[in-house]
Amino acid sequence: MGPEVSDAIPLVHVHGFAVSGRYLLPTARKLAHRATAIVPDLPGYGRSAAWGHALGISSLAWILLEILDTLDLERVFLIGNSMGGPISLEVAHNAPERVAGIVLASPAGGMHNQPLGRALVQLARDVRREGRHLIPVMLPDYLHFGPLNAPHLFGELMRFPSLERLLRTPVPTLAVIGGRDPLMPPPWRVRELGRLAPPHLKVAVIDGAAHAMNFSHPGELAHVIGCWLDGRDIPPAMNAHLRSRRAPATPAPPRPPPRRRSR
Fold first, then answer.
1. Domain limits of the chain?
2. Global pTM?
């Protein structure tokens, strides 16, 4: 938990599958000046005690609500990466009065990740695209989570109807997609999602980011979240890394060179 920022709704960062919240800290630190930052390890992850078995998404959502009760947090923003996206969506659907809004950074789950074999191939591609600095952060967490807990929960995550829940979210929502994330739909599908989105759902793409953008692109992600929190338009471009769902304006065609008059 970061330093308390009064008169601001706290930001709760929700980690992904089989890992602790350590990889979320770069983005949490970038946003810590705006509101109190909370990065919990859910039961069985990181420094938290195991539950005896791997909890499913719905159970983790209820546990997260209990964490908010324990910390006496009446209303929060949820910032979920990967599996943290479905968990955040579950909390928002079950207790919308507790959630001021949710940010879904590379939310996992849905048809694009099915069947399980396809999801495993996508995950292997993502490992190659993530920076090498992420390996020493995540590898101990994967080993701690254990191979016996992984298959059932991973299968549940891949079957989670993320798109349907996203389009019916009851609270203001920002979805941020990595342009190089193999677990996410292709750009044309993201643009289609933008067209289907209700007014309280915003979609942005960070070019160059893979799945763990909270670790690899904290500055860009924090900037997008900051714009959204302030109600400002997400800029269509930010030093070639950030691109919102709005297409850039078509440049004017070059003017033809002036004709020389013949003498």
1. 11-244
2. 0.81
